[in-house]
Design a protein that fits this description.
elongated; 9 helices; 145 residues; mainly alpha
């Protein structure tokens, strides 16, 4: 498989990589797929295929090769969608941390409070709430200005 051929049909190339995870040719297949993903550049689905391949390879030799290939240069995943997905992941992590801290401290978090935290997309606000959660006595203390 060449990078150009893989780039023409990324879903098939990803499936081929997963299917041949234990094949002696897996290194060449994965190299072609990695190059194809670089050729795809900012296509919204390129990162999705990269992640699907990593999951599909499981704990095989192919998975180790894939991780090395992907750790070399992920700069080609700079699309607006990729950046948005990363930002949403960071927001989700902070939201979960706020809720977890409150619950671990024995503070009840109502469904309304949880919804307010999870639906917030302002990183500065989330950071403020996270700081407040550390010393809050009630969930209302987190939201007070």
């Amino acid at each position: 498989m060449t990078a150009e051929a893989a780039a023409e049909d990324l879903p098939l190339a990803a499936l081929s990589a997963i299917t041949h995870a234990t094949s002696p040719e897996i290194g060449a297949i994965l190299e072609a797929l990695a190059a194809a993903l670089r050729l795809a550049g900012d296509r919204d689905d390129a990162q999705i295929y990269a992640e699907l391949v990593e999951l599909g390879l499981g704990r095989t030799r192919g998975a180790r090769i894939w991780r090395k290939l992907m750790s070399v240069d992920l700069s080609f995943f700079r699309s607006e969608t990729s950046q948005r997905i990363r930002e949403e992941g960071r927001e989700e992590g902070v939201s979960e941390s706020i809720i977890r801290i409150l619950r671990r401290r024995g503070i009840a978090v109502s469904a309304a409070a949880e919804s307010k935290i999870v639906s917030c997309h302002d990183r500065a606000q989330l950071g403020e709430w996270l700081d407040r959660a550390i010393g809050a006595q009630t969930v209302d203390d987190v939201f007070s200005d």
